[in-house]
Amino acid sequence: MINAEQMSAVLAALPDPAFLLSRSGKYVAIFGGKDERYYHDGSNLIGKSINDLIVPEKASWFIDTIARALDSQALLIEEYELSNQDVKGLPKQDTTEKMWFEARITPLDFKVNDEDMVLWVASNISQRRRLETQLREQSDTDLLTGLFNRRRLERELSYHFNAFKRHDYCVSILMFDLDHLKALNDSAGHHAGDKAICKVASTCQKTLRQTDILCRFGGDEFVVILPHIQKDKAIQTAQRLRQNVKLAFKGSQDFGLNTITISVGVTEILASDPSYTQALKRADAAMYKAKNQGRDRVCAQ
Ligand SMILES: Nc1nc2c(ncn2[C@@H]2O[C@H](COP(=O)(O)OP(=O)(O)OP(=O)(O)O)[C@@H](O)[C@H]2O)c(=O)[nH]1
């Protein structure tokens, strides 16, 4: 058996900090937190209250979380963001990177000063969160253009289709495709074709508003979601994209004698659409109409 002195040495040596917190948010004791890569010395917190130390919008979350753990009488696991500037008395961080923690909160079966208590063990998970964010961004991004890819497009379409059904706001969809890219690939090489795809992407990105969602659908096809835009306005946006792409390529030496234009299909999500796929099919059909009518034009359905 170890004695009380050894026990407190063990608790002090714990790499993650463990806070003994009362229901009202008072720091009654702090153990561990020895891993200096991730934690500051918290001994000066003892006797103080979360409400006095942490910015109000976050302090109320801490107090609510303690109450939830106590009321459920079960281990509660939560992830939260807490930066140095959120806590009084901590040195200013020299980066703007967010600090994330995982808390494991255990209700205790004794009171201190007549208050219920929890043990709040915090682990710094910032690295894992950064990696998760990076992976999510990579899996949503088209490598060639840096735009959202088809996987992200499907998610955005699903979100906007559901919002359309619930809140009855309008959503338009554009689908466009480069004209005669094969001829450019054949005459100037695939690298020139890649450059043309990127130039179209950046021209359209500059033309669209921040709330519009531009995605590379695949190959030389792109889709734009225009939230809160009706079809007649969407047609105007499509015309602006078409004109700006044409202008961007005009007189450019990089693409030989090839001129790059786009053919655009426009549609609006309809109440009768059973899913966003139906609207996408309509945009696709409108785009093929534009191709068949001679390209470098906009058609709506
Ligand atoms: N360089 C390059 N070419 C691509 C890429 N993705 C698709 N393509 C080519 O783009 C062409 C797309 O085919 P289509 O859209 O049917 O042909 P198009 O020549 O653009 O003709 P229209 O669309 O009918 O005007 C094919 O030749 C593909 O090989 C890419 O990432 N890079």
Automatic annotation (TrEMBL):
GO molecular function ontology, one term from the record = diguanylate cyclase activity
Name of the protein in its database record = diguanylate cyclase
Q: Which reactions fall under this protein's catalytic activity? A: 2 GTP = 3',3'-c-di-GMP + 2 diphosphate
What superkingdom heads the lineage?
Bacteria
EC category name: transferase
What this protein needs as a cofactor is:
Mg(2+)
Question: Which SUPFAM superfamilies does its entry note?
Answer: Nucleotide cyclase, PYP-like sensor domain (PAS domain)
Stored PANTHER family: DIGUANYLATE CYCLASE DGCM-RELATED (PTHR45138:SF9), REGULATORY COMPONENTS OF SENSORY TRANSDUCTION SYSTEM (PTHR45138)
Write out the GO biological process terms. cell adhesion involved in single-species biofilm formation; negative regulation of bacterial-type flagellum-dependent cell motility
Q: Which organism is it from?
A: Pseudoalteromonas holothuriae
E.C. numbers: 2.7.7.65
Q: Which residues form the GGDEF domain?
A: 169-301
Identify the InterPro entries for this entry.
Diguanylate_Cyclase, GGDEF_dom, Nucleotide_cyclase, PAS-like_dom_sf, PAS_4, Rev_trsase/Diguanyl_cyclase
Q: Name the NCBIfam families on file.
A: GGDEF
| Any one GO cellular component localisation term in the record | plasma membrane
